[in-house]
Amino acid sequence: MLDRTRLTALLARERATFEDRHPRSAAAYARADHLFGRVPMTWMNKSAAGFPIHLDRARGARVSDIDGHEYIDFCLGDTAAMAGHSPAPVVEAVTRRLAELGGASTMLPTEEAAAVGAELARRFGLPHWSFTLTATDANRWAIRLLRAVTGRPRILVNSYCYHGSVDESLIVVGPDGQARSREGNVGAPYDVTQTSRVAEFNDLEGLARELAHGDVAVVLMEPALTNIGIVLPEPGYLAGVRELTREHGTYLINDETHTFSAGPGGATAAWGLDPDVVTIGKAIGGGIPVGAYGLSAAVSAALSGRTDLDLVDMGGVGGTLAGNPLSLTATRATLEQVLTDAAFAGMIEVATDFATGTQKIIDEYGLPWSVNQLGARVEYRFVSPAPRTGGESAAHADADLEDYLHAYLANRGILLIPFHNMALMCPQTTTDDVARHHEAFADALGELIG
Ligand code: PMP
């Protein structure tokens, strides 16, 4: 059992240290009167210490703040910078497009777009690709297309999933086992239990029960949950999902936005999965906004055969900036030169070191915590054995403990992914960086446990 009084005192101390160390960030925050919530986006107020550090520069696995501190960045823009910050091939390609060729947004295709489509097809095994600016939009558009193809109204997601701000995905299994709107679903446009169904991850019985209603167009899922800690699939679960979706005439989307950390073709390639659609975003642009969705030959044929669908005019989703030359030149450079097969091998090796060392320290302190790894991504969770479902994982969140660890590490030059205890490796992350995390993590536990 943790000594909560000690935790409260240590958290207060770390917050005070954070405040002392960041006078310029604090002042910048205080001055930002014309930003709603004092930040460019309200979620940036998710800070272990009361206000966010303000960025000065970022390169590779390092970021520096305006107070002059440098950090080993295991956050990496929550995957948007999994290629490392400003990788040279991306900077070069983007600069050439902007400065030499011109035309960041033209409403015209480039030859590069086809190269990106071909590379994504090679990696994920789906032949036809379209682009958006965010993974959220890739999911929204893919859902619409599959509702159109099936004529079915609903989608199904896993409890405590995250697929971006997709209205239909904000649903959980409540304590009574019934579906309900997820807490924090601000300004919900409708009752989500009317548009969506939900099953716990790793629960094939629950999935079968929900699909039996016959009204689910598509199951939208991550092959491993990554937004409520990492919840890994049990043996046979993903094969069972594929079997059940086929049996019930329901399509399957693998959202690879985060599970891309599993390898060059995400979990889809690493685990030999066979989805109808893959959605992705963030990392593939090397820091430049882009999202993408890939369709199986059957889905694209079914869509192309439908003369009643407005896929060319206003259609329902899309966006003037989608598929713009800047995003696609960045994506091509990222895929061809940065997040290569060799880079993934190195990142996964470093992540394995992170996971093994973290578990060892946890064990040394006799804590009932667990560590999960998904390729280049590692998460520690305050429960052992590791949770099997999103609901179980959500039940073991501990906001103060999490804030303490985040603030403690930040004060010692280490950034984790906010919202949970997750660390991501980029091609420049080294085992020395990992060792520095381990040292600070062991110190944090030492002070807490004694
Ligand atoms: N899918 C998954 C699995 C995600 O984790 C996220 C964001 N964390 C998204 C989609 C949405 O990405 P974006 O915010 O870039 O639209």
Automatic annotation (TrEMBL):
Pfam families: Aminotran_3 (PF00202). Gene3D superfamilies: Aspartate Aminotransferase, domain 1, Type I PLP-dependent aspartate aminotransferase-like (Major domain). SUPFAM superfamilies: PLP-dependent transferases (SSF53383). It comes from the Bacteria. Its cofactor is pyridoxal 5'-phosphate. InterPro entries: Aminotrans_3, PyrdxlP-dep_Trfase, PyrdxlP-dep_Trfase_major, PyrdxlP-dep_Trfase_small. Keywords: Pyridoxal phosphate. GO terms for molecular function: pyridoxal phosphate binding; transaminase activity. Belongs to the class-III pyridoxal-phosphate-dependent aminotransferase family. This is Glutamate-1-semialdehyde 2,1-aminomutase.
